[in-house]
Specification:
heterodimer; A: 265 residues; alpha/beta; 6-stranded mixed β-sheet; 4-stranded antiparallel β-sheet; 36% helix; globular; B: 296 residues; mainly alpha; MetI-like fold; 2 domains; 12 helices; 0% strand; binds adenosine-5'-triphosphate; binds magnesium ion
Chain lengths: 265, 296
């Protein structure tokens, strides 16, 4: 099998409104192996969310295709679960019910009622949210909401987990805590992950490869950086690690020297 | 359902109650909890009672002269004592106790309102979901909703050839517009995020409707339902004055024709109380159903 697990082939995205059209993505191609953790980093507005939504099937690419395990994907589905930037929990359901909704839908025929309950609880345990299972989203903190969002996505047993700036709105401490949890889960379950981020340290800490995008309009993949750090990784030890520092500075160089954000008109 | 005890009228009571509870709750929880609770209850009950007594006394004084065209409260009570004491009296034709008149009105409202709720939510969903349905239907709705409820009555009498279905139709056509419009607004305001969640989960049309659309739009729908019940109760009294038969509206009209002013006053008080209870009932259902759904 020569084909990679997930592959994006020559993706173009053009938004047109009325007569005017803007090209957002230009010939984006990327191959991802099973179990890989990929970060996508780039300046605001370059088209990262658009790219992720195309992989999710929520947006149709203008040209190009996405293959997952050799099949074209062009509609959304639970095999590509998304953790949205703003958690997107349903406010009228409890924490438990939010996850259960996904479990019930995805495993309606393959698991019994009791098994679905078990599986829901198991995923809440993974993100350590069992204690708040009967709370509504409005009653838990931002970090907790994001954890429930992750549990909901994991519970679908996706082939690819798509994270759109999952920790963007969180404070530094909560963010570090969740990064550790995501790393832990990735070690345990070996998911294939595509994560968008703005945070250079987060990208280096979590990823196997970092995809750096040029500025829009017509963003391309500028460079792909391998992060050859052994796992498990510990943030404190890494702070002084030579490889870590090299990776970090090459991402910073890319973002702030070669592709500095120029004020787009 | 006799409405004889607790004739508490003022509409401004609930918000006051809420504010008081909020202000008092942090201080409770100490050993002196019970007296505090009593104090807060008194704080809710005493002001409306004082207002009520004041108004009754004022009314009594103003209308006490023998030439006054409106009877004072004391005379209203003495003249209507038969009606107050025997709400369940059942006589011939329209000679019924007040309970039966109100029940007849409530039945018409219930039927017309339920039909309006079902049709209104369905039409509102259609208009909220489909751009084309909105373009096609919205102008028609906007014109029709300005037609005063009673203006429909002659047309519906011509169509149904009977008073009862005509009154029910008037209730229906009165209550449906706010329900349609609020439902449509609620559906149109469903955040894109929830739709994305539904798409990733591949919810089918039915699941999307019950699990996302209705709960997301529920606060809006209930706003429409609450406006609708108020309008229904307004319209039924007027419609019944014209169609006759058993019903609180015709009771008032009949009392006017036989110059029983005290009966009219009593009926008005009952109408007010029932309208208030209807509104509270819908508000209660709304609170129970949409509890904690304020967006997170
Ligand atoms: N539906 C749309 N119609 C028209 N233009 C769009 C649409 N969605 C996105 N765009 C444009 O595409 C560009 C990329 O948007 P996108 O949301 O993918 O950026 P991003 O990299 O995720 O930014 P951020 O980091 O701020 O989230 C933006 O310039 C945006 O204006
Ligand atoms: Mg984005």
């Amino acid at each position: 099998m020569s084909k990679p697990y997930l592959s994006l082939e020559q993706i173009d995205m053009v938004f047109s409104r009325g007569g005017a059209s803007t090209q957002v993505l230009n010939q984006v191609s990327l191959s991802v192996e099973k179990g890989e953790f990929i970060s996508i980093i780039g300046h605001s507005g370059c088209g990262k969310s658009t790219l992720l939504n195309i992989v999710a099937g929520l947006t149709q690419a203008t040209r190009g295709v996405v293959f997952l395990e050799g099949t074209v994907v062009d509609t959304p589905g639970p095999d590509r679960a998304v953790v949205f930037q703003n958690h997107s929990l349903l406010p009228w359901l409890t924490v438990y019910e939010n996850v259960k909704l996904a479990v019930d839908k995805v495993f309606s025929s393959s698991k019994s009622r009791a098994e679905r309950h078990e599986w829901t609880m198991r995923n809440l345990e993974l993100v350590q949210m069992v204690h708040a299972r009967d709370k509504r989203p409005s009653e838990v903190s931002g970090g907790m909401k994001q954890r429930v969002g992750i549990a909901r996505a994991l519970a679908m047993e996706p082939k690819v987990l798509l994270l759109d700036e999952p920790f963007g709105a969180l404070d530094a401490l909560t963010r570090a805590h969740l990064q550790d949890q995501v790393m832990q889960i990735h070690t345990e379950l070996a998911n294939t992950v595509l994560m968008i981020t703005h945070d250079v340290d987060e990208a280096v800490l979590l990823s196997d490869r970092i995809v750096m995008m040029t500025n829009g309009p017509s963003a391309r993949i500028g460079e792909i950086l391998d992060v050859p750090l052994v796992r498990p990784r510990r943030r404190i030890e890494l702070a002084a690690d030579a490889t870590y520092i090299r990776c970090r500075s090459s991402v910073l160089k890319f973002l702030y020297e070669r592709h500095r954000l120029v004020e787009a008109a | 359902m006799t409405a004889s005890p607790v004739p508490i009228r003022p509409n401004e009571k609930p918000p006051v109650a809420k504010i008081m509870t909020l202000a008092l709750s942090p201080k409770t929880g100490s050993p002196r909890r019970f007296p505090q609770w009593l104090t807060s209850l008194a704080a809710h009950v005493v002001p409306p009672v004082i207002t009520l007594v004041f108004l009754l006394v004022l009314w009594e004084i103003l209308c006490s002269s023998p030439t006054a065209s409106v009877p004072p409260p004391s005379r209203v009570v003495s003249e209507t004592w038969e009606l107050i004491a025997h709400p369940f009296y059942a006589g011939q034709g329209v000679d019924q106790g007040l309970f039966w008149h109100i029940l007849a009105s409530l039945k018409r409202v219930a039927l017309g309102y339920c039909l309006a709720a079902v049709a209104g939510i369905a039409l509102g969903t259609l208009v909220g979901q489909s751009e084309w349905a909105m373009r096609g239907l919205d102008p028609i709705f906007q014109v029709l909703r300005t037609v005063p409820p009673l203006a429909w009555l002659p047309l519906s009498l011509a169509a149904f050839k009977d008073g009862n279905p005509s009154a029910i139709f008037v209730i229906f056509i009165t209550a449906i517009w706010p329900i349609i419009i609020n439902t449509a607004v609620g559906i149109r305001n469903i955040p894109q995020d929830y739709q994305n969640v539904a798409r990733v989960l591949r919810l089918n049309q039915f699941e999307y409707f019950t699990k996302i659309m209705i709960p997301a739009a529920a606060p809006y729908i209930f706003t429409g339902l609450r406006i609708g019940i108020g309008l229904s109760w307004l319209a039924i009294v007027a419609a019944e004055m014209l169609i006759g038969g058993v019903g609180i509206g015709f009771f008032i009209w009949d009392a006017w024709n036989s110059s029983r002013i005290s009966d009219i006053i009593l009926a008005l008080i009952y109408v007010g109380i029932v309208g208030y209870l209807l509104d509270r009932a819908i508000a209660f259902v709304a609170r129970t159903v949409t509890r904690n759904t304020a967006s997170a």
